[in-house]
Amino acid sequence: MRTLIIMAILTSSLAAAGCGKSNDGTSGTPPPSATATAVAPAATPQAPSTPSVTASAVPVAAKKVELEIASVGDTMFFDKKTLTVATGDLVHLTLKNNGKLAVMQHNWVLVKKGTEAKVALGGMEKAQDAGYVVPSDDVLAYTPLAPPQKTVEVTFTAPAPGDYPYICTFPGHYVVMKGVLTVSP
Ligand code: CU1
Q1: Which among 36, 126, 129, 145 is most buried, taking Cβ atoms within 10 Å?
Q2: pLDDT of residue 124
Q3: Residue 96 CB-density burial (10 A; 0-12 exposed, 13-18 middle, 19+ buried)
Q4: Which pLDDT belongs to residue 18?
Q5: Helix, strand, coil percentages, rounded to 5, for the chain
Q6: CA of 31 to the centre of ligand 1 (A)
Q7: Element (H, E) at 26
Q8: Which residues pair with 94 in a beta bridge?
Q9: What is the DSSP letter of 128?
Q10: Which pLDDT belongs to residue 60?
Q11: How far is the centre of ligand 1, averaged over its atoms, from the C-alpha of 18 (Å)?
Q12: How far is the centre of ligand 1, averaged over its atoms, from the C-alpha of 17 (Å)?
């Protein structure tokens, strides 16, 4: 008899537990929230039409462009051999030194075509404090030196359409650490 009673109690408590679960399941009533989210998108489609009108009116002002470039680990290579912007763009470029060796520092120097060696060698004669760059007409934009794991930046206005070499002027790097910035009309 006792076993039967215990079993009866167990069964009823299990049933109660089961009931509780099923109650929770039904009490969740997700449909209302699903309806709510379904309603929201219906209201948004009208919004995008307004920004697109504003965007087409903007071209007069300089377009801001973000460029990111980095060193490939501890090597003397940029991770991007080419970059592209449009003439007149206000360019914000960040250079990340992904290296870990203290002796491996980098910068990003945009120069006039054919002046790479001249600029790099001229910069080499300068102390490290000067970032190995001597400002001149050949140098269009340049970042400070980026120590390992650091990011440096420069903001400049994209020059006339054409191809412009960019190099790292840290002693010995410019020969391989280079790329080309293409400025479109
Ligand atoms: Cu470098």
Answers
A1: 145
A2: 81
A3: middle
A4: 40
A5: 35, 25, 40
A6: 59
A7: helix 2-27
A8: 68, 153
A9: G
A10: 66
A11: 68
A12: 68
CATH class, 64-184 region: mainly beta
Per-residue pLDDT tens over the stretch 3-46: 333 333 333 443 344 444 444 434 444 444 433 433 444 444 44
Residue type, 43: A
Radius of gyration over every alpha carbon of the chain, rounded to an integer in angstroms:
31
Centre of ligand 1 from the C-alpha of residue 160, in Å: 26
- For 63, the token pair is 């377009």
For residue 78, the surrounding DSSP H or E stretch is none
How far does residue 97's CA lie from ligand 1's centre (Å)?
A: 9
Q: What's the 171 CA to ligand 1 centre distance in angstroms?
A: 8
Domain locations along the chain:
2-57, 64-184
Confidence (pTM)? 0.67
Using the structure block, give the residue that is written with the tokens 């002027």: 169
Extract the runs of DSSP E, i.e. beta strands, from the chain.
64-70, 82-86, 90-96, 109-111, 139-142, 151-157, 162-167, 178-184
